[in-house]
Here is the input.
Amino acid sequence: MSYLYFLHAGGGWNVMTRLGLVRAIFHQHRLMLEPRAAATTGDKAEYPPGSGCYYCDKPIGAQILALPGYAVAFTLFGAAGPRLLLSLGMGAVGTAWAASGVPAIVLGLVFLALSGCFTDGLTVRVTATLLYCLGTLAWAYATVLFAHQAAAAAGFCALAAAHWATATPRRPGLWAALAGALAGLAVITELPAVVVYVAVGAFLVAGAGWRRALPYVAASLPLFALQLGYNWACFDHPLSFGYEYEANPAFGHAGGWVSWPRPTVAALLLFSRDKGLLVFSPYLVFAAAGLIIAARGKGPARRLALTCLGIFAAYFLYNAGHYMWWGGSCLGPRHLVASLSFLAFGLVFLLPRLSGAWATVLAATGTWSVVVAWLGATTVSEPGPAVANSGVLMAGLAQLLGGGLDWPNLGMSLGLRGSASLLPQLLLGAGLAAALVAAARRADRRRKGADAGQDRVESGPDA
Here is the structure.
């Protein structure tokens, strides 16, 4: 509900080039951007160079997910006369829901399910899941047509499928194939997710042997074929990517976009006011500690924790070496978004061990994380260029207090204005979260009571 509450009918360059491709496929049945769509974005490839023919420069995974959402929303709202603009706008909203919101919801459900493999405590599982879903940048990026949350969902679900391929005797080959298909989808959604593909494959082989590598790789090939086919159709070669033909001179020489990680940038990615991960989600320190503890143990938890740590570390080093490490006009360190679910899963391992003062600190940092994530999602999930890299959260707070929200939401469709339009989402979301935690606590108490009763029955004859 929180992910689908906002109505993003467009956005900046990153969003508009993806939306332009979706509209070109749906309306013109072609891959080249329509001239008016190309004029709305600087993120585009020109091929042949100097020809004036423009294409989306991004990998195609998010656009594949977005296309059904656009088609359904556009068709539902009618496609002619005075309703055309409304249909185009709602079609754009449908792309964000289909490519970001729905995958983020699936990720949350899989996160909850996977946590059950490592702890019986339902309160621990629900708390860890809610803190990831509502206490990180995942919330904001689940509302806009970027690729990060789609890649996060595909990558994390791939790791979950790989775990079930190693942990269950039922259809392990099918789970391995599902892991490969999802990991392949992650790669064609966000190219840095190749580290997820490799890491999940290594996890699968370490847990189930080389025999599981065949279905894993085989299931990923059709996804890679889609990307290579798109490259071939647009740029005359399957290994030619849109980034090689950037129309914007500032984005030229894609091969030099990433260099060795820089320590100063690494520090800024953690602690800077507008791009520091631990400013947005300080509770993730506890999640990292949980992964480290699990990695020092044995068995499946160790393999999973090492995989999650490796994926997050690879993304972090990639971001620290990126020439545009701040990510342009965006909220927070967006290049890390696809790795946050892997890092956040560490809380599952730590929460059962936590008590006293440390539990209080986690509660405080978790509360801060949720408040900041809510502020970002409701006001500046995609900030304008004027606040792109300076004072993003303060700009969001100014929007909230002033009531002049950048983007519409479902509350406005009920007749509520300005900041008041956020009240249904805030009250319902907080109520549902509190109800989930309370229900999980009751279930844990019943389970512990049943376990205690069983222990007394079993010890009766000995007594």
Notes: The longest helix spans residues 423-459. Residues 104-428 form one domain. The radius of gyration is 23 Å. The longest strand covers residues 44-46.
